[in-house]
Amino acid sequence: MKNPALPINYRILLSTKIKENLSSFITGIVVVFLSLSAIFFFIISSFQSVNFGKKEAKPEVISETKKVRTYTVQEGDQLWLIAQKLYGSGFNMDDIMKANNITDPNLIEVGKSLIIPDVKPKFPTTGNVASGVQTEQVTKTEDTYVVKQGDSLASIALQFYGDTFAWTKIAQANNLTNPDILTTGNVLKIPK
After folding, report:
1. Structural domain total, the chain
2. Is residue 1, in this structure, part of any structural domain at all?
């Protein structure tokens, strides 16, 4: 004999499921709301700690006693040599580049007027850079040098002066327009 199936009351089942899930759903919404509120208040408090009312720094006014120095680029000039001539240090080339918005130091035009900023000279690269220096690094004393494969002006300067930064003396004495290009077998004058 068949057991008569109990009638399923779908309304009661549905309302029971909704009540079970509704509490989880509401709890989830509350947690999300509280989390978002905490993040919002954290962001607001961060912005309030930043003082937007600060006075902006005023641009520096050049006093009338300071005169703007300029330099007109000559044939054969390089920024390193210009900085060396004006500051006594080729490393001030960066200051000249910044003042004139120059991105490539190899692209300066003859006749162009460069602004020379009023800055302190950096590490000296002219004058008696290595005069009187006697170290074990000085291995050569001749007046000339024959370029070998792999030589650079800095390595040659180290051999003769004990100072790699003295390469500029060799470049100037030999009128090298590009000190990065040395030809094997060339004879360089070594100034004393």
Report:
1. 3
2. no
